[in-house]
Amino acid sequence: MLDVKLLRQDAAGIAAQLARKKFVLDVAAFQALESERRLLQEETERLQNARNVASKTVGMAKSRGEDVSVIVAEVGELGQRLDAAKARFAESQVRYQAFLAQIPNVPDPDVPEGRDESANIELRRFGTPRQFAGEAQDHVAVAGAEAMDFERATKITGTRFVVLYGDLARLHRSLIQFMLDTHVTEHGYQEVYVPYIVNADSLQGTGQLPKFLEDQFRLVGDENFFLIPTAEVPVTNLYRDEILPAQRLPIRHVCHTPCFRREAGSYGRDTRGMIRQHQFEKVELVQLVEPADSADALVELTRHAETILEKLELPYRSVALCGGDLGFSAARTIDLEVWLPAQQTYREISSCSNFRDFQARRMQARYRDRDSGKPELVHTLNGSGLAVGRTLVAILENFQDGSGGVAIPDALRGYMGGATRIALRSA
């Protein structure tokens, strides 16, 4: 959530920044809500003060033995008016907060200008895409139906789910273990295990609600419970409504979870294979840092995700998202895109974002400043380190051998019992 003080001081300036995100801030509506809030607050405070004065008058009159019936009636009337004013003020606060909750974060000044992904800026590339003798097969064809089963997944659940068997299931599990081990032992993250169901307050805290309600899987029978869309939600919310000692920062957590997304509005996109599923796995990196450190933390976190791709020998590129392609809560995002030979293009495999104090303000996640001792908002960051399914897809396509098998990257061989190749189907 944006700092409302900034909106009060310069709503037009904030609107201009938000326009870079293709968001139209209704300045007039905000000013009307702000005026209403202020007037109702002043009325409530005036009536509260008047009743306090009248109540004191009753006590003084009683001590002098005077008739207080008229004053008592006045106090009662003031109380009724005060209750009504409080109710109107509470209603206005609900409208006010609902308006603020739908406003996205402002982009950092160095975020590229642009309306959509075509304006994103490539920062660097790693690796050279492999040249195949013939046409590269996509991951569905490489795996074959005996290892990657969409038909039975559709039978037991529905479309956009998958069942993996045998060595392919083991390779999927090995990727998770490899990613977790690397981030814990080499990058200094603490592994955490969290619930896969969260309450609405948690989704509100990280910015998924109210805007992205239609993308969430909501539990029937308890409308306050949701399946997590990403580990970002439970892990970041660990510190909701807490004041941390500055010595605890930076906090670095890594977490593996399944993720559940309805993919509302994406009908027809990536319907073949594992690129866009309703259930998928991710290893997520989350950091909470002091404000002065968040820009450097984004560079560090992004590098940690890049390291996984490099260890797996997967060609990729890093891309700075333009304003029009930034997510709701992000102030700056660096996407990592892995090369997929069958598509002859780079596809997103990780988004590494700095949210600055946007999520922390919604969550009231704070730390005690080292100098002043006052509570201040932390800055939050996260990124996939990596999306497991898409990493599996990239390995299948980049390491296919044309004979029904897939070579195992060196970094994974220890997790695969020393195997250098898995045979998925007959050539």
Quick rundown:
Helix content is 40%, strand content 21%. With 427 residues, the chain is of the alpha+beta class. The strands form five sheets. It has an eight-stranded mixed β-sheet with strand order 1-10-11-12-15-9-8-4. A three-stranded mixed β-sheet has the order 7-13-14, with no helix packed on it.
Structure, explained:
- The protein has 427 residues and is an alpha+beta fold.
- The chain has 2 domains: 26-101, Serine-tRNA synthetase, tRNA binding domain (Helix Hairpins, Orthogonal Bundle), CATH 1.10.287; 117-423, BirA Bifunctional Protein, domain 2 (2-Layer Sandwich).
- The protein contains 12 helices and 17 strands.
- It has helices spanning 4-19, 27-63, 69-101, 139-143, 150-156, 166-185, 200-206, 232-236, 294-311, 358-363, 388-398, 410-413; strands at 121-126, 148-149, 163-164, 190-191, 197-199, 225-227, 243-245, 251-260, 279-289, 316-320, 332-340, 345-356, 366-368, 375-377, 379-387, 405-407, 421-423.
- The strands form 5 sheets. The chain has an 8-stranded mixed beta sheet with strand order 1-10-11-12-15-9-8-4. The protein has a 3-stranded mixed beta sheet with strand order 7-13-14, with no helix packed on it. A two-stranded antiparallel sheet has the order 2-3.
- A hairpin with a 4-residue loop joins strand 11 (332-340) and strand 12 (345-356).
- Helix 1 (4-19) runs antiparallel to helix 2 and helix 2 packs antiparallel against helix 3 (69-101).
- The longest helix has 37 residues, at 27-63.
- The radius of gyration is 27 Å and the shape is elongated.
- The termini are far apart.
- 37% of the residues are buried.
